[in-house]
Design goal:
Pfam families: E1_dh
Structural class: alpha/beta
EC number: 1.2.4.1
Enzyme class: oxidoreductase
Oligomer: single chain
Subcellular location: Mitochondrion matrix
Number of strands: 12
Catalytic activity: N(6)-[(R)-lipoyl]-L-lysyl-[protein] + pyruvate + H(+) = N(6)-[(R)-S(8)-acetyldihydrolipoyl]-L-lysyl-[protein] + CO2
Number of helices: 12
Distance between the termini: 58 Å
Strand order of the largest sheet: 2-9-10-6-5-4
């Protein structure tokens, strides 16, 4: 039939055009600033077409997921604390490109993006944001407390995840499994005493840990210049080698993370990375984000340094993808987000009986005391 012929012809044209794409390209990337290092990451990065499409899709998914979370929060469907990650997507995706899923990662409360890159699904994340049973923490963690295998949250206490990350790194060294831990914190947490204590212990014990400061220029509503006597966060480890990286370029972040991971795995101990990035939203949903910075500043970053646009331009200008193909990804991502939002607003909330469950991963059911001595609850794994 004529329609079948047309379909076959379009399929042939499609396969022919895909074969014409550049399978791999090498790009110049921004030089990394070094502290206590003779050599740093390379000044070029090779990207395959498959990697480019994967990075593009993941960053778009994080971006769209956060924009949908913003919408649901304003509709009062998501309640409580909610810290969005849009603008910083190259950090999460670049870091994951430089390590493996068998490595470990812990971060602060701006954690939705890492929950996705560590193996969580959009559906699980959105349902967790709305406190539903199908959420990644069964609806009991919310925005700040999401976990997956080898991902330890999502932590609400400023800076407290950094020493916990050192504990994970100590376990890696003790077990001798050639794994490492990435311990992330923001510029707002960078002056915490517990971070410097952790630097000291990690250096003494030569722990396989990458400390990463995601410097998005503002700790809540306070600019780095107003909060820190030294804004060179990559030098803050003093005796620990450091890198300052363009956190808006996924390839820069990936290459720097690979370099840092090799440093750790070779037994040289900890290394510190500062990722210079930017958040488009306010600190949290209760912060409009324009009382301490101008709309023009935000717009300038969007127009000149957006991580998704940067990757898209590279791929299009080097014939690694077509505009139509990237649009198809955008449409598929939007549909995935809408389907997840639908699930997140219709899935039931966890019943009261689940209140004390999931304390341990694999254990026999046991009794938990309730709010009063005579109230007994049961915990199941």
């Amino acid at each position: 039939c004529r329609s079948c012929t047309r379909g076959a012809a379009s399929m042939v044209a499609s396969s022919r055009s895909y074969a014409d794409f550049t399978p791999e390209a090498t790009f110049d990337i921004k030089k990394v600033d070094l502290h206590r290092l003779e050599e740093g990451p390379p000044l070029t990065a090779t990207l395959t077409r498959e990697e480019g499409l994967k990075y593009y899709r993941t960053m778009q998914t994080i971006r769209r997921m956060e924009l949908k979370a913003d919408q649901l929060y304003k509709q009062k469907i998501i309640r409580g604390f909610c810290h969005l990650y849009d603008g910083q997507e190259a950090c999460a995706v670049g870091i994951e490109g430089g390590i493996t899923l068998s490595d470990h990662l812990i971060t602060a409360y701006r954690a939705h993006g890492y929950t996705l890159t560590r193996g969580g699904t959009v559906r699980e994340i959105m349902a967790e944001l709305t406190g539903r049973r199908g959420g990644i923490a069964k609806g009991k963690g919310g925005s700040m407390h999401m976990y997956t295998k080898n991902f330890y949250g999502g932590n609400g206490i400023v800076g407290a995840q950094v020493p916990l990350g050192a504990g994970v790194a100590l376990a890696c060294k003790y077990l001798g499994n050639d794994q490492l831990c990435v311990s992330l914190y923001g510029d707002g947490a960078a002056n915490q005493g517990q971070i410097f204590e952790t630097y000291n212990m990690s250096s003494l014990w030569k722990l396989p840990i990458i400390f990463i400061c995601e410097n998005n220029q503002y700790g809540m509503g306070t600019s780095v210049e107003r909060s820190s006597a030294s804004t060179e966060y990559y030098k803050r480890g003093d005796y620990i080698p450091g890198l300052r990286v363009d956190g808006m370029d996924v390839l820069c972040v990936r290459e720097a993370t690979k370099f840092a991971a090799d440093h750790c795995r070779s037994g040289k101990g900890p290394i510190l990375m500062e990722l210079q990035t930017y958040r488009y939203h306010g600190h949290s949903m209760s912060d409009p984000g324009v009382s301490y910075r101008t709309r023009e500043e935000i717009q300038e970053v969007r127009s000149k340094s957006d991580p998704i646009s940067m990757l898209k331009d590279r791929m299009l200008s080097n014939n690694m993808a077509s505009i139509e193909e990237l649009k198809e990804i955008d449409i598929a991502v939007r549909k995935e987000i809408e389907d997840a939002a639908q699930f997140a607003t219709t899935d039931p909330e966890p019943p009261l009986d689940d209140l004390c469950s999931h304390i341990f991963a694999n254990d026999q059911p046991f009794e938990v005391r309730g709010a009063t001595p005579w109230t007994k609850l049961t915990s199941t794994s």
